[in-house]
Structure formats: C-alpha cells, structure tokens
Specification:
single chain, about 625 residues, hydrolase, DNA-binding, alpha/beta, ATP binding, 23 helices, Helicase_C-like, RNA-binding, Rossmann fold, eight-stranded mixed β-sheet
Length: about 625
DNA sequence: AAAAAAC
C-alpha cells in the first residue's frame, strides 16, 4: 500500500513531542529560516525522516507552540510565508494572503521575468507564436498512451488545475495560455501523488509539467519539514539532469514558476566554484536542481541531506539510467538516506524510454503511471529530416555547401520544403553535432577560418567557455555551434533552424534527441544527416524512424536498411510512433499476465511487484 | 569507442 505524504506526517507526529523537548537555538550563522520557523513553533514540524540526529536537531528560531495563524501575525521577518500561506489556503487561492508587514522575501526576490519586456520586443520580430512559446495549432490530434492504475483524467485548461493564485499568476507571467498535452496529462497525475514515467519531446513543456506539481506540493505543506541542521540543508524536492547546462536551464525555469511562492530553488553543478553554491544552499533550499557528480560531492560533505526529499524528478531519465550514470543515480537514490519509493514521489521524464531502461527505472518507482505523448504535430511533421550520403573525406566541403546555400538564401537557415518556405526567420541558428571533442574543436576552427563565425561546446571546455559558447550562439553572434552530445538533450535554444548530424550517433534515441533541438515548441525546423558506411548500424532504425515521421527515405538508405542484419531490439524504438510504450504492457503479453485487470489485492501487478514502497535488498524485480 | 558527470 502506498504511504501518502499526509500519512507520513501524521505517523511521525510522535516526533513532535521530541522536538518540543529539544533545546532550541538561534542559528549562529546567517542561514535560511523557512517560513514556518520564522516566528513561531517548531513543534509542527514533522516528517518521514526519523530523527537520526537526535538531540538538538532544530536550529530554527523561537520555540513556543504558537498556532500557525498566530505566527503569521508575528514578526515581520516572514521570509516567504506569504506564498505558502496562500497556497495552504488551497484552491481558493490567496484568501489568506493579505498579511505580513516588514520585509518580505517577495521584495528581495529578483524578478525572473525582469527582462521579458525587452525580449518580447525582439521576439515580436520573429513570430506571433513566440509569446506563448508554443504553437498550439500543432497540438491537435496528439496521440497519447496512458497505462497504470486509477489514472486521473487530463485537464484542458490551467484553471481546472488547483494550483492556487500565486502559481496561476506565474503561469500568466510565463504567457502560458493553455497547458500542452504533456502538461494536461502529467500535472493531474503528479498532483494526485502518483509516480510517473513520462515520454514527451523536450520543448513541449516538460519542465513545467514536473515543476508545477512539486512547487504546489511544497506550498501545501507549509510546516512539513525542517530545512537545515547546522550546515546541512534538507531539500524537499530534487531534480536531476545529465548536463550542467540543462540543470541551469531547469533552474531558470523553476525560478519563474516559483516566483513569490516562497519555495526556494537552488542549482548545483560541477565546473563552477562550489563556494558560491554552498552559500546559496545555506540561505535555504526547498528544491535542489543538480547534476549527479556535484550532488554526490555535496552529500559527502554533508552539506545536503536527502532525508526530507518528498519529490524526485529525473529529467532525461533514460540518459540518467544508462551505463554511464546508473551507479551514481543508484547511489543518490538508494544509498543516501532518501525516503523509499512509495514514500517519496518519483517522476521520470524523457523523450525516449528504451525498454531495458524502463525495467531499470522500475526500481525507483512505486506503482507508476506510464504516459507517452506524441511529438508535437504528431510525429515529426515539424522537423524536415534529410539524410545524405557523404564520405568521411567530403563532410567538410559538404557542410560548407549547405552553409553557403543557407547564406545565399538571404536568411541563414531558411527551411526547404514548399509548405515551410513561408516561414521567414531573421535569425536562424545552425547546430552541428560531431562525434568527438577533438572533432568539435577542429571543425569549429576550420569553419571560422572559412568565414563562418562558429563556436563549440563539449566536455573538454571549461564551464565558463561552455556557457560563453551557448550565449554567443543564442545571441546570434556565432550562429553556428559545433557540439558533442553534451548539447543533444533538453537544451532549449530558440531559433535553431537547422541541426546537422555531421557525425551520426550510434543510437537512434540520441538522433531523436539531437534533432529535437530544432522544431521546438511547435515551430518548424530542418535536420540534415551525413550518412556513410560507418553508420551502417543506424541504417535500419533511421529508415524506420523517418518512415514513421513521413519523411522521404532515400532509396539507398532503404537498401542499407534491408541489408542490415537484424540486431535484436537494441536499436529498435519500443512501441512505434512516439517515444515508447509501457514495458509492463509489452512484457505482460509474453508472460500471460493481465497487468490491467486491477485485481482484488488492489495490486495491478498480480503480486509480482513489491509496491509497498520498501526497497528490500536482495529482492529482485519480478522482471529479472 | 565516445560522451557526460566532482575535486
């Protein structure tokens, strides 16, 4: 049986007595004091975390058992009380928000929407769609697959979602008019406290889909958790992503969503001085966005504890669980005191979800709902995919031809197909993917020498160089970016009109992520791939993918594809037209199990799966 | 084999 958060809180009510007895001290450092600790009791604090620290665990402010209502009237240093109280007021929204004098965090919080006016001026030049960020016309008839128990129905408007007035205001500030398909389905599931595995193209509003429920959930638990003990902080939400830039991007978005809610979002990643991040953490954190390496560092330094984590989100989850990352993720999720699955809420998001990764991921999930939302515009209508046969030795000159052609078109990156020609981009960017870091440097150098202002991003560059490169590309100063796979996933770079797979990846899923850097948010884009004999293993899956996306498949590629030895499922995308499908469903067929019949045990898994939430070492998954 | 991710 799933343990709800509310249950956890009440179950640990016994701890209240303990904390009451503790001698309480004011923090000796200038540390974050969460709203519920500011001027009142710590005795409301409780949580799923047992008191391993014993003793004086709480370093909040004054003791005393003041009722929440009284506390709100209390001292002026109410940090962030406004937002949370309003949220605690629930769907009525804001009814209890007319409070608090003195300084308030809202007055100090940098307005993350601050520059948008200027940006909007610029954006006016691009397209009208830009304001909402999303071309909603492209969202008609999106295929959706959902499976699992008790799936909450999707919503059609943000108004139907009970997020509260402050979040609604942020939605308006973001200029979101109505929820995207992934948001329509995922947000109700997440708000219902269900674990979720979601397949959706990045750029379709994925970040908001997991951020809003997390922020909303934290706002509704205003007295839920301690926030720090000594120098250790206890985030309630943890969002992991595979690259530093993606973590930054999620952080930037989350700050907008959480503006004036009192929910504090902090980012931590490698390659940047840790001291600044530590200081930021000391000032308090509710949601931590991080890359795995730096997080492990912080955990080992005991500057962060995962004991209080209520919400865990993995972005680009299939990448996070592949060979390179899995041990680190397991360490973080299973060996660092994080509450068990079933106690915390776990949400996995990616555009692709290979079956074997789904199987792995089920270790982290409790009776999850599987959700797959088709690509914007149903499959890849918005991305024109071309594949060209180019010998290794001809690649540079061929790329040069493409770039010259774009330049002569008067607008770098004009799209090719007739029905797209009307689209005029004044600023169009070209993203060139290569296989190796060295290859990236050398191609960038060569392009620059030949009169094409370029820059490059890859793991051998310093973080400073990486961020500079990204800015320079986004601004159009260097409209060509040569990148390794570090830039393949999740990065939201507006106005990328053309993705060139100078070197094709070995995995079709990587190809999907790479071309997903264009054609974002309902806009159109072009993807060109250079194919030769060294890409034979990709011939078949590439041909299949292009076919599914109604792209022209050259005869020579079909030929290679038909000759390709069928190499099992490794390179096959599970489940047809979009993203993937629920591996439980597929595997149930072979095992003659009906996973979807419910069952009187209240367990749709026929007793095969431990959904009690406990992680029992030695107990293997039913699918192993 | 390569890429990413901590110092």
């Amino acid at each position: 049986m799933r343990t709800s958060w509310a249950d956890s809180v009440s179950n640990s009510a016994a701890e209240i007595a303990i904390s009451d007895k503790n001698s309480l001290r004011r923090p000796t450092r200038s540390t974050y004091v969460p709203p519920h600790l500011r001027s009142g009791s710590i005795s409301d604090l409780s949580g799923p975390v047992s008191g391993t620290n014993g003793g004086s665990r709480w370093t909040g402010s004054d003791g005393g058992g003041t009722k929440p209502e009284l506390r709100r009237q209390g001292q002026g240093n109410s940090y962030a009380t406004a937002g949370r109280d309003a949220a605690a007021g629930g769907g009525g929204g804001g009814g209890r928000n007319n409070r608090s004098g003195g300084w308030d965090r809202r007055e100090r919080e940098v307005n993350p929407f601050g520059n948008d006016d200027k940006i909007d001026d610029i954006k006016q030049n691009f397209s009208e769609q830009e304001n909402s960020g999303i071309n909603f016309d492209a969202y008609e008839d999106i295929p959706v697959e959902v499976s699992g128990e008790n799936v909450p129905p999707p919503v059609n408007t943000f108004a139907e979602i009970d997020l509260g007035e402050i979040l609604n205001q942020n939605i308006r500030r973001c200029k979101y008019v109505k929820p995207t398909p992934i948001q329509r389905h995922a947000i109700p599931i997440a708000l219902a406290g269900k674990d979720l595995m979601a397949c959706a193209q990045t750029g379709s509003g994925k970040t908001a889909a997991f951020c809003f429920p997390i922020i909303s959930g934290i706002m509704r638990e205003p007295y839920a958790q301690r926030s720090h003990v000594g120098r250790t902080v206890y985030p309630l939400g943890l969002i992991l992503s595979p690259t530093r830039e993606l973590s930054c991007q999620i952080h930037d978005e989350a700050k907008k969503f959480s503006y004036q809610t009192g929910v504090k979002v902090v980012v931590a990643y490698g390659g940047a001085p840790i001291n600044q991040q530590l200081r930021e953490l000391e000032r308090g954190v509710d949601i931590l966005v991080a890359t795995p390496g730096r997080l492990v560092d912080l955990l080992e330094r005991a500057r962060v504890s995962l004991q209080a984590v209520r919400y865990l989100a993995l972005d680009e989850a299939d990448r996070m669980l592949d060979m390179g990352f899995e041990p680190q993720i397991r360490k973080i999720v299973e060996q660092m005191n994080m509450p068990n699955r079933g106690v915390r809420q776990t949400m996995l998001f990616s555009a692709t979800f290979p079956r074997e990764i789904q199987r792995l991921a089920s270790d982290f999930l409790s009776n999850h709902i599987f959700l797959a939302v088709g690509r914007v515009g149903s499959s890849t209508d918005l991305i024109v995919q071309r594949v060209e046969y180019v010998l290794e030795s001809d690649k540079r000159s061929h790329l040069m031809d493409l770039l010259h052609a774009q330049r002569e078109n008067g607008n770098h990156g004009k799209v090719i197909r007739d029905y797209l020609v009307s689209l005029t981009l004044q600023l169009a960017l070209t993203l060139v993917f290569v296989e190796t870091k060295k290859g990236a440097d050398s191609l960038e150098h060569w392009l620059c020498m030949n009169g094409f202002p370029s820059t490059t991003i890859h793991g051998d560059r310093t973080q400073q160089e990486r961020e500079l490169a990204l800015r320079s590309f986004k601004s159009g100063k260097t409209p060509i970016l040569v990148a390794t796979d570090v830039a393949a996933r999740g990065l939201d770079i507006p106005h990328v009109a053309h993705v060139v797979n100078f070197d094709l990846p070995n995995d079709i899923d990587d190809y999907v992520h790479r071309i997903g850097r264009t054609g974002r948010a309902g806009k159109t884009g072009l993807a060109t791939a250079f194919f030769n004999e060294s890409n034979l293993s990709l011939a078949r899956p590439l041909a299949e993918l292009m076919q599914e996306a109604s792209q022209e498949v050259p005869a020579w590629l079909t030929h290679y594809a038909s000759r390709a030895r069928y190499g099992g499922n490794k390179n096959r995308r599970s489940g047809g037209r979009f993203g993937g499908s629920d591996f439980r469903r597929e595997e149930s067929i072979g095992k003659n199990l009906d996973y979807y019949s419910g069952g009187n045990s209240g367990n749709a898994y026929g007793g095969l799966v431990d959904i009690s939430g406990g992680y029992a070492p030695g107990v293997t998954s039913a699918w192993d």
